[in-house]
């Protein structure tokens, strides 16, 4: 399946309610239009018979009469002459290879249809026959002209010539070629079938087509990253993985998050390595992805340090007074201070360096030499350092972190992040010299924004939740009860 087709099908499924709405409206309109007032039709039949032509040739002539009668200019004149109202439709029809001509009238009332069909057929017949008679008269006059001239000059005319003239005149007078004759005059009116089923069916098909086009248009105009191909069109590269929303079983989402860690382990930078996780704009999925990478690698036996570097997100501030936070270490780091600031977690081999609360000017604190020195100190006791960085487009310090990292993961919130923001973020990573690794498309869980994050203990987690900054307030839809996957993560932390 092509990428464009896959994207369009996704948008149609996503906006299935819009497709259904337009379908219902189209069916309703089709039903109303097709089940209106009754119509009645009446037909008058005419024919032409010629002794000198085959019936097939007469059929060609009848087809010409049909085209002439159905000409809008002629019908306007016919209506004007006969006083036929505008709600009555007139049409000439024929049967293939037949010399029969049917004049059909359709009107709201049966008497109107009968009257219009009879008058229109008679008017058309008389008009055609009058023209044919004019031709006959001209032919007769042309035959008689030489004899009239000779009589005027007293020139003799033989008996044989008079007999031949009379024979030719008889042939012209008796020729019925092109003459229209009545074939059926006792016309009646019948009620037209409404065809509700056919009309509703056609309206339904049109509604489905219009609904699908509307769904595709709405999805495109929103400009959100709602599919892998939308990301590819925005940043020019395919996504590494798409992480679906947790559906309650805690399976597929967890496996996809672990796959990100596996890809980094197999295809990422050599350990000890620093992996920065960021996003174009603020989204709770960055913290989730960063923790999933750290937890998965720690479970595999790697020594992992998770650095919380987003100072405007909910964080444990209790460690700052003791110097156990990134905020406190942004002065010249020393080995003993760095090691003391790392907090253990419930996951073996995973230690956490919390942010320590908001900074007045994070960019001033993240001096490239200082952050590089801190990372070098962390590498002394870790195989992998995962940095939960601030949004690249809204926090200047995120650029310093990403440029210092050995690989950068760009997290894109599905159906929330805009294509324009993704383009700017990807371009900025190139401009600052960051080692871009891949983009992941993550669908936000309803409870993700308020999900507790790993810290030193369960008590610390509870304290950090109560001290959360306003910027980390849950999204409006985050009030839902956490599912089994979120409870597992909370248990780990």
From TrEMBL:
The chain crosses the membrane at residues 15-33, 199-221. Residues 466-493 have a biased composition (Acidic residues). GO terms for molecular function: protein tyrosine kinase activity. Keywords: Kinase, Membrane, Transferase, Transmembrane, Transmembrane helix. Gene3D superfamilies: P-loop containing nucleotide triphosphate hydrolases (3.40.50.300). Residues 447-493 are annotated as: Disordered. It comes from the Bacteria. InterPro entries: Bact_polysacc_biosynth/exp, P-loop_NTPase. This is CpsD/CapB family tyrosine-protein kinase.
